Amino acid sequence: SYHLDFSQLDLDFLNVDFYKRTLFPATCLACVCDLSRIQWVNPLFARLLLEGGYGSVARVSAADSSELMQAIADANARLLLFKGKIGLKDMARLVYCANLLSQELEC
Asked: How confident is the model over 88-99, as pLDDT tens digits?
């Protein structure tokens, strides 16, 4: 049988603060999965959407782009997940892509 010996791993490179900021409760997993269906949305950006009050494809598709942009900026200021800025055109594209999807997550 194969056995992993984690005691031999050098984990000093891990940024513990980053992992504390990026972890979220398991109850939010369905929201992150739903949001990740939107083109270009990875789980980390889905976390920003969720923290900004947009926890579903339906919420993003109904969003005002400028309000969504501000909510993402505020969430990012708290969590420090991304170094760059996210522009209004990016948010307009996100809302457009969300409108192309079914509003309900199929399980």
From this structure: 999 999 999 999
DSSP letter for each residue of 3-54: ---GGG---TT--HHHHHHH---GGGHHHHHHHTTSTT--HHHHHHHHHTT-
pTM, two decimals, is: 0.73
- For 47, phi and psi rounded to 5 degrees? -60, -40
Tokens for 30, please give them: 């369905």
Spatial distance between the Cα atoms of 59 and 82, rounded to a whole number of angstroms? 22
Q: Tell me which residue of 46, 34, 36, 30 sits closest to 81, measured CA to CA.
A: 46
Which phi and psi (to 5°) does residue 39 adopt? -55, 135
For 87, phi then psi, to 5°, come to -90, 170
Other C-beta atoms closer than 10 Å to the C-beta of 23 total 9
| C-alpha to C-alpha distance for 75 and 78, rounded to whole angstroms | 5
CB of 81 closer than 8 Å to CB of 22: yes
